[in-house]
Write a structure and sequence with these properties.
Layout: H1 9-16, H2 18-35, H3 37-40, E1 62-63, E2 69-70, H4 81-117, H5 119-133, H6 137-151, H7 161-172, H8 175-185, H9 188-195, H10 200-205, H11 213-220, H12 230-241
Antiparallel strand pairs: 1-2
Helix pairs in contact: 1-2, 2-4, 4-5, 4-7, 4-8, 4-12, 5-8, 6-7
């Protein structure tokens, strides 16, 4: 398979690792279920008119008084559990994916800036990262979430809650990306760019990480911090959403 000799670490992993293949299969299935939820679900949990209290506590696989079959049962409000899972998956995939991308943008940007500029810029960014690493990610996200919600007007808090959660998760997890990229920028490439007096914009936009597989392997050796993925963000999302009143909480995994 050509992917086995590819320079891309991702393609080589997909070609050789069963675990990576399984993870891609699960991720694809989750995204497809999230996209097709309106057509696969028999009930819209966001629509109160679709709920039937007479079907509350219907057992899995049985039909309720309304005649609808609940394959995973119904809860105390007559919500179809399977429909709630599918619609909750949409929210979890959205929050997990967007927060990962936002964390990566913030972390890679600050890491490249610290590695290229050096001096007090590097010291400031890395000391800020060290301070944030002393606190659990969940605690930092909860702190940012609480401050942001408190700063918003009361009439906008529920409407802006999802954006506040995404921002809180992203700002609590950028450190790992920044430390990794900054360490890889502190090498001969950075010194060469400085010696040639390359423009900062060009230097920051090209090759934020080593391009050669051997360089990637060497740069990553000894780095103990892992980059939390979308699943980790989904758990934080479920926790932060639980801090809001249940009446306003949208369906999500972990509810």
């Amino acid at each position: 398979m050509p992917w086995r000799q590819s320079d891309s670490l991702l393609l080589r992993s997909l070609a050789t690792s069963r675990l990576t293949q399984l993870a891609l299969l699960v991720l694809t299935a989750c995204v497809l279920l999230a996209v097709l939820a309106p057509w696969l679900a028999s009930q819209n949990p966001f629509d109160p008119a679709a709920l039937d209290l007479l079907d509350a506590f219907t057992r899995p696989g049985e039909a309720g008084i309304s005649g609808r079959t609940y394959w995973l049962g119904a809860d105390d409000q007559g919500e179809d559990v399977l429909s709630t899972i599918l619609y909750g998956l949409r929210m979890s995939v959205l929050v997990g994916g967007v927060s990962v991308l936002l964390s990566m943008l913030i972390g890679v940007g600050l890491g490249v800036l610290a590695g290229y500029r050096g001096g007090w810029v590097d010291a400031l960014i890395m000391r800020l990262a060290d301070v944030q690493l002393t606190f659990p990610v969940l605690l930092v996200a909860l702190l940012i979430f609480g401050i942001a919600r408190g700063a918003l007007p009361a009439g906008y808090r529920d409407d802006m809650a999802i954006y506040v959660i995404i921002a809180a998760i992203a700002l609590s997890d950028w450190v790992q990306y920044a430390r990794t990229v900054r360490g890889r920028r502190h090498g001969r490439e950075t010194e060469g760019l400085r010696g040639c007096r390359a423009p900062a914009g060009a230097a920051l936009s090209r090759h934020p990480v080593p391009a050669h597989p051997a360089q990637r392997a060497g740069a990553g050796a000894g780095h103990r911090h892992h980059q939390p993925g979308a699943g980790h963000r989904c758990r934080i999302h479920a926790f932060l959403s639980g801090r809001r009143p249940a009446a306003h909480a949208a369906p999500r995994w972990g509810r």
